[in-house]
Amino acid sequence: xxxxxxxxxxxxxxxxxxxxxxxxxxxxxxxxxGLLHSRAALAxxxxxxxxxxxxxxxxxxxxxxxxxxxxxxxxxxVPEIAENGSVVPVTVVCNLPKVxxxxxxxxxxxxxxAATFTIPQGTEGLVTTRVKMGQTANVVALVKxxxxxxxxxxxxxxxxxxxxx
Amino acid sequence: MGNxxxxxxxxxxxxxxxxxxxxxxxxxxxxxxxxxxxxxxWFITEVKVQHQGRTVLEAQFGQxxxxxxxxxxxxxxxxxxxxxxxxxxxxKGDTRTDEATIAA
Lengths: 165, 104
Fold this sequence. Notes:
Chain A contains three helices and nine strands, in the order αααβββββββββ.
């Protein structure tokens, strides 16, 4: 028993050390990125995010590494079944105060991020657009409201792919 | 220059609804011709919507947005007769701006 307790303590220490180290590394990275890109940061197309191959990669590129899952905060409307994967309507509605950004992802597409909308003050937290889906996948909505990220997802079954097939 | 957009804007109870249909191929860069050659990526990357000179929506698009992108959103304010202007830029640097008058 003592041994196990000891082991656990060591593990916790290791975990904490890793956390701190990782955090510092990320901070440094963002700091450098910020310096290099501070001028054009807002308007420039986010190439890193749009060429991301996985959800984790894309979320990190949007500085939204661990958004809160909330189907209450975000209403995501997609068809359950899409006969034509090349035109899938997606509506994201978020009634939280101070919605700043809405992003739409398709988690199994080659590039997962479909679009990012910047919502200025006075514009409602609502967008509708249409996305391509190569196969049955989750459509994910990410909303930034008052500096905090929220996400929700819904599966869309695709019966015919959207990639020129 | 691209082809003209269709823009509809209408105001109701102080909220303006904007619908935009852009005409663009939105090639992913992953599709192949019948002979196996890749069709190069060609898609809208940025969209900006302005109302009387004020930006009411900015968007960045990736390859996953459908051909002839559709967009709907609402902003507060706006009055019948005022203008809404939509501008897009694609990855080849082409750009186009169209305007519509807000209907009651």
